[in-house]
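Thread amino acids onto this structure.
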């Protein structure tokens, strides 16, 4: 939200991730702020599903939804980073885009897989015997 309200201040944060965006205009920063909402929404949705699962532990589908959104978060974040860099670097002639797969992104996948394991094991334990 801060990127839409005060883009020149938000540009300083973006420079940590996109160092060549020094001369990006305010509309470019605002576009990137909107694009970044996509990955933030995905992560937020995962935590909402996780909180709902914690409040209703018998509803295992919430754990599965949380896991799926967590597993897809690094993929969506990578796509968002590509689009963000293309917007921020559009004023440059020969800018390159670097796709990074870090341990932080891997953490979300591992945590999502752990939730899938919880979902499957608890679903099997609580399945009625025929």
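Threaded sequence (130 positions):
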């Amino acid at each position: 939200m801060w990127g839409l309200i005060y883009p020149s201040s938000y540009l300083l944060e973006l420079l940590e991730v996109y160092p060549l965006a020094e001369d990006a205009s305010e509309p470019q920063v605002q576009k990137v702020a909107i694009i970044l909402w996509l990955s933030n929404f995905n992560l937020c949705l995962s935590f909402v599903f996780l909180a709902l699962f914690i409040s209703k532990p018998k509803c295992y589908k919430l754990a599965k939804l949380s896991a799926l959104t967590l597993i897809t978060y690094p993929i969506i974040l990578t796509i968002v980073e590509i689009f963000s860099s293309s917007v921020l670097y559009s004023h440059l002639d020969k800018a390159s885009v670097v796709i990074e797969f870090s341990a932080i992104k891997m953490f979300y996948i591992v945590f999502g897989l752990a939730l899938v394991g919880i979902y499957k094991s608890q679903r099997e334990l609580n399945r009625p015997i025929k």
